[in-house]
Amino acid sequence: MQRIRTSIFLPLILALAATIRAESPSEGELSPEERLRIIQEQERRWNLNPEDLPLSDPLDRRDGDSANVSSESGVEAFPVLVGQTTELVLKSGTRISIPGNSFKVPANAAVRAEVLELRKPRDFAFAGISTNTIVNGSPAILESAGMVRLRFLWNATEAILASSARLRLEMEPAAYGSFNVYRRNDTGDWDLKGNAKESRPNAECDSQSRSECPSVSTLIFDQIDRSGWWNFDEPKTEFTCITGTVNRSGADLRAVGVGRNWSSVNLSALTPTNRFQINVMRNERAKIIAVEQKDKVAWLGTLPAFITQDRITHTKFNNGKDCQEVGSVELKPISKKNLKDKESFLKAIQWEGE
C-alpha cells in the first residue's frame, strides 16, 4: 500500500519541486511586482506566519532596564530649555530640535534629555535591539542607517511630550538607500511612522559612492511625537538563514545574528537539541552571539565573523535544512558587569573594527 501511495504522489512532488526551482527571486531579470509575487508565494509554501518571528531582545535586559542601556554605555545628556527651542547636537553631529513648550511640565521645570545613538555595527551588536519586523504582512529585516533612543526626565520621572509636540531629527546616514522611519513599540516590533526626507548639498552625490561623494547627505524626520527608539531603516524582504549549536541549554539562552558590515540584529530561539536557526541578510558578513543570564551569573559565546550564503531561504523552509551550517558556539562565564560595559562586551565577543 505504501508503494502505491508513493507512486501516486511522486509526479506531484516532482512537479512542485520544479516549480519552486523555476520561481526563485534570485534568478533572472524580474520586475519588482514579479519578485514580490514570488517571495509571497514562497512564504505561503513555507507556511510562514508573521507571529513566528521572535521579537524579544536577549541582550536588551542586561541592566534590568527595558530601554537597555545605562549611563555608562554611550548615553549623551543635555539640559532642555522648556520655554524655548532647544537644539541637541550629539558627538556624531546628529541634531535633535525640541520646540519650546514641548513637554507637559511646569514652565520653570528642569528637563533632562538623554540620547543614545546607534550608528555602527558594533553599536548594534552591544545594544542587541531586534530589527525583525513585518512589512505589508510579510517578514522583513530592517537594515538601519542609524537609530536613536530618546528619553526625557523631570524630577527623576519621565517628562511626557505634549500632544502637539513634534521634534526634528537630522542624521548623517551610515548607509545609502531609501529609508523609512520606524518607532519601536511596547511589544518590541517596529511601527512605520513615515518616510525620511533627504537633504543633499551636492546633486552629484546621487550617482557617486560614499567614498567618492564630496558632500554628505542628511536624513531628516520632523514628526517625532514621543520618546523611545526611532530608526532610519530600509526593509529587506530577501534573506537567508544560518544554523548551528550551543553547548548549553536553558529557557533564558538565546542566540543572535549580528551584521558586521551592515547594521541589523536578528534573533533566534533554541530548539530542544540546542540548535539555533536565524534569518539574516544574505551574502554579507555576520557574527553569532549567544548569551544566557541567571540571577547572579551570565554566560557568553561567539563565533568568528563569516560570510552568509547567497541562497534565498528561510528557517521555515524545508525544516531549515537549507540554512547555512556555521558551527558550534561555546558559552563561557562572564561577569554581569562586563556584560553591561560596552568595550568589555565587545572584547569578550572578539569584535574587531567598527
What does it look like?
This protein is 15% helix and 36% strand. The protein has 5 helices and 22 strands. Strands 1, 4, 5, 6, 7, 9, 10 and 13 form an 8-stranded antiparallel beta sheet that branches. Strands 15, 16, 18, 19, 20 and 22 form a 6-stranded antiparallel beta sheet that branches. The longest helix has 21 residues. The N and C termini lie far apart (61 Å). The N terminus is likely disordered.
Quick synopsis:
With 354 residues, the chain is of the alpha+beta class. Helix content is 15%, strand content 36%.
Write the layout of secondary structure elements.
Elements: H1 2-22, H2 32-45, E1 76-80, E2 86-89, E3 95-98, E4 111-118, H3 121-127, E5 132-135, E6 138-154, E7 157-158, E8 167-171, E9 180-184, E10 190-195, E11 197-199, E12 218-224, E13 228-236, E14 240-246, E15 253-259, E16 265-268, E17 275-280, E18 285-293, E19 298-302, E20 306-307, E21 324-329, E22 332-334, H4 336-340, H5 342-348
Parallel strand pairs: 14-21
Antiparallel strand pairs: 1-4, 2-3, 3-8, 4-6, 5-6, 6-7, 6-13, 8-12, 9-10, 9-13, 11-12, 14-17, 15-16, 15-18, 18-19, 18-20, 19-22
Gyration radius, in Å: 23 Å
Count of β-strands: 22
**Series of H and E elements:** HHEEEEHEEEEEEEEEEEEEEEEEEHH
Strand content: 35-45%
Question: What is the count of DSSP helices, taking H or I runs of 4+ residues?
Answer: 5
Largest sheet: 8 strands, antiparallel
Structural class: alpha+beta
Q: Can you give the mean pLDDT?
A: 79
3D shape:
globular
Distance between the termini: 61 Å
How much helicity do the residues have?
A: 10-25%
